[in-house]
Amino acid sequence: MKRTALREVEVSTRRPRKGVPKPRSELGALLKDWRASRGKSQLALSFDAEVSPRHLAFIESGRTEPSQDMVLRLAEALGLGLRERNALLVAAGYAPQFGESDWDSEEMRELRQAAALILGAHEPHPALALDAASTVLDANAGALAMMGLGRDALGRTNLMDLVFAPGRVRSAIGNWQDIAGYLLGRLKENARLRGPGSEVANVLARVLTYPDARELPARMPGRSAGVLVPLTFVVDGVATQWFTTVTTFGAPLHALAEEVTIEQFYPR
Q1: Signed CA dihedral, 75, 76, 80, 82: sign only
Q2: Which pairs from 185-189 meet CB under 8 Å and 24+ separation?
Q3: What is the edge-to-edge ordering of all strands in the sheet holding 127-130?
């Protein structure tokens, strides 16, 4: 451990070759914030990242400039997503290592095609693709009909707004407290993982302004509900029940590719 720490100190004295150097305190502040959100002490993080506590303390205080490899090791030990790893690299004065282009970019064409195949194959049952902040990126005809949307609303509509804001979708959810409570818990966990400056955190703050959101019970339904919490959806007086599965893409090297989920609805 001592030899490793010495090598890291030597490497860290070199100026970063890529990116625009940032104030040393920016990286240190980010690391401290992430440690706090993960509930990690300096000692715990140094152990997980296999770096000496002294070296980590120097990085956080700005006395040492870490190598790019060290920044990525710390990000890995903190369990950060690719977008958050990019932010840590930039704060250290390095260029981002992972793509962050948007859904409609050429870079995401292959992933869009794969998502469209999954959504189409799930017809006539609803299926939709979401980003980390629950923006509806794509949806099949069944999901668009359930949400009461046209294709022109894709990329501009947030699923959490549909569920929590007074309107057609919220009114149609027969067990709104159960579903909203589950989604709120999921949103809070995503905001914790992505950080207070993320778009997920912004969506959470907005959701909590909607009627009854802050008063939702913190507990899940009792065991009588079964092994899953079904969605009860009522249209024209006819109630249907659905359960969902969530699919993610494997081995992502792009921030959005890591964040996209595909939710498929199955009749109960």
Answers
A1: positive
A2: 187/134, 187/160
A3: 136-139, 127-130, 261-267, 238-248, 231-235
Q: How many helices (H) and strands (E) does the chain have?
A: 13, 5
Q: What are phi and psi of 208, to 5 degrees?
A: -70, -10
What separation in angstroms does the CA of 142 have from each of 28, 128, 157? 48, 9, 16
Length of the chain: 268
The CA-based angle 56-62-64, given to 5 degrees, is 60
Of 233, 229, 250, 249, give the one whose Cα is nearest residue 241.
233
Compute the distance between CA of residue 78 and CA of residue 39 in angstroms, rounded to an integer.
10
Q: What is the pLDDT of residues 64-79, one digit of tens each?
A: 999 999 999 999 999 9
pLDDT tens, position by position, 69-119: 999 999 999 999 999 999 999 999 999 999 999 999 999 999 999 999 999
Average pLDDT over residues 199-207: 97
Query: For the CA atoms of the chain, what is the radius of gyration?
Result: 22
Is residue 148 within 8 A of residue 169, CB to CB? The reply is: yes
Q: Which tops the pLDDT comparison, 141 or 23?
A: 141
Helix, strand, or coil (residue 164): helix
| Structural contact between residues 149 and 139, judged by C-beta atoms closer than 8 angstroms | yes
Q: What is the pTM of this model?
A: 0.85
